[in-house]
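ugh ok fine here u go
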Amino acid sequence: MNDLMRYAADLEGAGGKSLPPVHLWNPEFCGDINLVIKRDGTWFYEGTPIGRARLVRLFSTVLKREGGQYFLVTPVEKLGIIVEDTPFVAVLMRTKGDGEGQTLYFTTNVGDEVCAGADHKLVFRKDDETDERAPYIEVRAGLEARVARSVFYDLVELGETKEIEGSQMFGVWSGGEFFPFSPAEDVFE
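structure:
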């Protein structure tokens, strides 16, 4: 854990409360680090869960995705990591308004909050593990959160049917946009 703690100390030394500008950092690749983000959102280093939420939050702020690969980056280092599904899990949802004026706010397991809308699309993809459609939301710069099953049930409660290109679709409104889950007949069979 010494390498990881050194890396964390370097990050903490950078200071600041806002997210660092990782999109501007393009250091040379330094190799892979034995860090895995499991499907349930748990971060593991060398096979051991990282139990310090503050440390996980710190690492999450320097996470970058390039193509299908994930990296922890600083201005001078780039370390490859493994992400089983998505780096984040949306564990809470709150709503403001209703119907077409509704706004959905999602909070991730690392404390990020995003509002579903034009800048943070809510999409539904087939889940490889369950073979069912699962919701995902973009958090930042190509990094997504899979919506936790309990939050998905809350989404379903808010759902309604809307005609899109001649088909009845079941979905939810947020930020002035309608996000379809699936054809309505699939939901109401």
